[in-house]
Amino acid sequence: MLHRNMPTCNLLLSGAIHFSGCLATQTLRMLTLFGLQCISVSSYFRHQRHYTIPVIIQAWQNDQAKNFSDHRAMDGGIVVAGDCRSDSPGHCAKYGSYTLIEDRVNKVVDVQLVQCIIMLGPATLRFLQAFNTTSTLHLHCYVMLQSSEVPNSTWCEIEGLKRSISLLRRQDLHLSTLITDRHRQAFTIKMLNIAKWVREELCPEGTRHYFDVWHIGKSLGKALDTASKDRQCDQLMLWRPATVNHLYWTAASTQDGNPAVMEAKWRSLVNHIQDIHDHDTPAFSSCAPAPLEGDQHDKEWLELGTAQWQQQNWSIITRTFLLKDVRQLSPQHQTFSLEAYHSLILHFAPKHTGFSYLGMYSRLLLAAIHYNNSHRETAQKSDGTEKYCVRYPRFRKGAFVVRPIKEKASYGKQCHAVLSYFDMAHEASVISDGDLYTVFYHYYYCLQVMQRYATSLMEVLRESYTNSPKALQEVGANLSASAPAPIAKTFTQIPKEEAVSLYLAQQSRFNKAN
């Protein structure tokens, strides 16, 4: 038995559930149905609040500090890709997490979690007025009195970026390149225009802002799909792959990111689709590849003045917004690593489940730690050749893609590195024998390696927790005090009896009494 009669397995079970990214309610329900004695859900959340969350945050701070040290040693500043992720689909997200990834080393630099409020619309207020709840006191039960952090989910991205940039400045890290998507949805609100904010705040410091090619190519493909549905423009579908590929080539072939050259290369497509390969622009005077001949040319050239040429030229290629975006295409680094990281977050924090602020933040950090320590090489066959697989994803619409098969995750090397770190820290008297941070940080990396690691950790955890159980409790209390208040706390609470009476008095339009 441990301090205050808590068995060792209780704390280890809570740590295993949290660190592996499992959901407590589902895991504990499964164990109960299997007939195993286990802790209650309330006990898990108590362990999470007092012990596991502080351990995860401390582990991330150690990992982040090491990454900052490595980034300072890199020449020319850091090259980061940034994007925001909402915790739920639609425009009613509770949290928005903004992530920066150093694209050259493919590691998460920073994760910022922003909490937004929920504003109820006029329909809800009309419902309340129907039950004579028109007094100021009752209406304030449902109208937001103050903002938790940002007014709504649209503000999360710009707020998260500002916080990440502030952290980089405090760490004396120069941001040389920032790659994002276009943020076209926020252009109508100047305060939310990320491109405008970066241009005014970061570009004077020497930061270059680029747009990810994939996002622009995706919207371009959708525009071509829409235009090709017209009976007079059915030939545009044959030009769709070539048009999107030309966008990628425009960026990839301009390594210095010269805006004028990229725009000239993109505009050359207007002549190319007419079988004209010489242009009157000095920046790009002729098509680089030789024109296709014979069977290689499987599309008809578009004639000047036809409906198809007008749609391809004026409605798509030469749109003002698209031309501006082409001038900022990223020539080398993209945001596909961020998309992979966002897919990884779904394992630790699925969108169908709601979490508390610290619960969500800790799971985001777990995903970042896992991502930073899970770089794998391509698997090889017995003869030394690399392994590949062929897939037919839905977005390719029948076309195949070839993907390398990665090696299975090796937790042994990571565990050895962590053990070496703690050995050095212990020799320098940085970490004491009774510090539970060491045990859980060790436990997170070593649990999945071999059973003997878990067995040894059980013994170490018993001794460490018995010596200093309150150290983590104090850290957990400080974290809870510094976290934004839950959204429900920002409302004036209506008495439960009054809320129940309003519910019972409600007349349903479907289940009416006979």
Automatic annotation (TrEMBL):
Keyword list (alphabetical) reads: Signal
Which superkingdom, per the lineage?
A: Eukaryota
Tagged with keyword Signal? yes
- According to UniProt, the name of this protein is Transposase
Q: Which organism is it from?
A: Merluccius polli (Benguela hake)
Identify the stretch annotated as signal peptide in this record. 1-24
